[in-house]
Amino acid sequence: DNVVEINNLVKTYENGHIKALNGIDLTIGEGEFVSIIGPSGSGKSTLLNMLGALDLPDSGSINVAGYDLISNKKLNEFRAKKIGFIFQLHNLIPNLSVVENIEIPMFTSKLSNSEMRVKALDLLDIVGLRDKASQKPSKLSGGERQRVAIARALANDPSIILADEPTGSLDSKTSTKILKQLIDLHRSQNVTLIIVTHDMDVAKLADRTIEVLDGKLVNAGENSLLDDKI
Ligand code: ADP
Ligand code: ADP
């Protein structure tokens, strides 16, 4: 089954004449790991924002996890239940402890406070940071913060993880660890993983790499197609 179905998606920003997305067609299967590459300004973040219903297109159709993101009115529900976001700047809330940050996405669930705490600590186990549960994010290294962001992205059992340069600010050893963790989660829980990256070493780990250029997809092939480009 497809978890993403996009047809002829167009997006123009109000102050710009450039089409940030200029007719995108894309399908992604359930449980797939897809990387999105392309030069700066090509439309990668815009595409990711559309997938997470953070912004609406001008025209075209976009269906994600069974939600029609254009006509559906329950976009808050969609974001809360279906999507885990990981951004480069991991936007953790500084005044909350690590474990409290992970509980945030669970507030829309039916879990009690103690169930939320148990689940948040379990997620910290998965990313190897249980011993940091009561620390504030400012006490953690960049790699540790990004692992907290991964745990938080998993807190609502999303069917899709959207990650925008998740390892962009990390050294290569740390970023390998972070990616390994994401890929393990994708495999063990059949989570669809969509990663925007500038790093070809990261991109080629995916089942499939999509290249965006001037708001269009120029390559949506299997990853073997990339071999002669590296
Ligand atoms: P990336 O590192 O993914 O290339 P960008 O620097 O393109 O990120 O964008 C970072 C943020 O700034 C995004 O939220 C994007 O929507 C916004 N942004 C990018 N270009 C512009 C622009 N020309 N005007 C206003 N906001 C922009
Ligand atoms: P990428 O992620 O590949 O760097 P973006 O999706 O951020 O590209 O940007 C695609 C195009 O849309 C660029 O020309 C960028 O300047 C423009 N853009 C992105 N976000 C905004 C925004 N919030 N307002 C105006 N223009 C934007």
- Quick one: overall form? globular
Radius of gyration: 17 Å
Let me know the largest β-sheet: 6 strands, mixed
Low-pLDDT windows of residues: 225-230
Number of helices: 7
Helix percent band: 25-40%
Strand content: 25-35%
Q: What topology, given as strand order, has the largest sheet?
A: 6-7-8-3-9-10
Number of extended strands: 10
**Cofactors and ligands:** adenosine-5'-diphosphate
The mean pLDDT is 89
Order of helices and strands: EEEHEEHEHHHEHEHEE
Structural class of the secondary structure composition? alpha/beta
Assembly level: single chain
Separation, N- and C-terminal Cα atoms:
31 Å
Characterization of the model:
This protein is α/β, with parallel strands linked by helices and 230 residues long. It has seven helices and ten strands. It has a six-stranded mixed β-sheet, sandwiched between helices. Helix 5 (142-154) runs parallel beside helix 6. Bound molecules: adenosine-5'-diphosphate (ADP) (2 copies). One adenosine-5'-diphosphate (ADP) binds next to helix 1.
Secondary structure elements and pairings:
Elements: E1 2-12, E2 19-29, E3 33-37, H1 44-51, E4 59-64, E5 67-68, H2 75-82, E6 83-87, H3 98-103, H4 113-126, H5 142-154, E7 160-164, H6 172-189, E8 192-196, H7 200-203, E9 208-213, E10 216-219
Parallel strand pairs: 3-8, 3-9, 6-7, 7-8
Antiparallel strand pairs: 1-2, 1-4, 4-5, 9-10
Helix pairs in contact: 4-5, 5-6
Protein name: ABC transporter ATP-binding protein
Keywords: ATP-binding, Nucleotide-binding, Transport
GO molecular function, one term: transmembrane transporter activity
